[in-house]
Design a protein that fits this description.
- By secondary structure, this protein is α+β, with helices and mostly antiparallel strands.
- It contains 2 helices and 6 strands; from the N terminus they run H-E-E-H-E-E-E-E.
- The protein has one domain: Hotdog Thioesterase (Thiol Ester Dehydrase, Chain A).
- It has a 6-stranded antiparallel sheet.
- The longest helix is centred in the middle third of the chain and has 17 residues, at 59-75.
- It is globular and about 45 Å long.
- The termini are close together.
- This is Hotdog fold thioesterase.
- Pfam families: 4HBT (PF03061).
């Protein structure tokens, strides 16, 4: 059977499977979609079990989703190696208590060793609740060796 998907689309679907296979993602109701090179989108639900003591989402969920969205946007351009986050800056702009949130990632620059990508969080009302910028570098880990990453023919 011959696939109609391009090599890039197969890479994007493999990255989506890699995200879904990560043990950390069993803790969060989230799903990654990669629409095109340099972009990612993670939809997730904020629930009470990620609240801090004042009754809103803890900053760890902001960081995790912003980092993941930027990371996967950047890794769309690296088809051979897993990238590693080397730095990440984030800005909290609004607390969120519950509901669906979207993390949008966008590659900014770099294609060889270091990549820069940015991301933002948007709540169910369409308001930006957080923003981040990350720097990622190629690791020595080949993508094809990771259990969740599989490019299907």
């Amino acid at each position: 059977m011959v696939s109609d998907e391009s090599g890039a689309e197969r890479h994007f679907r493999a990255l989506e499977r890699l995200y879904a296979s990560a043990p950390i993602n069993r803790l969060f109701l989230s799903r990654l979609a990669i629409p095109e090179e340099g972009q990612s989108r993670i939809a997730f639900s904020v629930r009470e079990d990620v609240y801090h003591a004042a009754g809103a989402a803890h900053g760890t969920i902001y960081f995790k989703m912003l980092d993941d969205a930027a990371f996967y946007a950047a890794n769309t351009l690296a088809t051979d190696r897993f990238l590693l986050t080397t730095s990440f800056n984030l800005h909290f702009t609004k607390p969120v208590r519950a509901g669906e949130v979207i993390a949008e990632g966008r590659w900014v620059s770099g294609r060889k060793r270091v990549f820069v990508a940015e991301s933002r969080l948007v709540d169910a009302q369409g308001d930006e609740i957080g923003r981040g910028t990350g720097t990622f570098m190629r690791s020595r880990i080949p993508l094809f060796t990771l259990p969740g990453y599989s490019v299907q023919p």
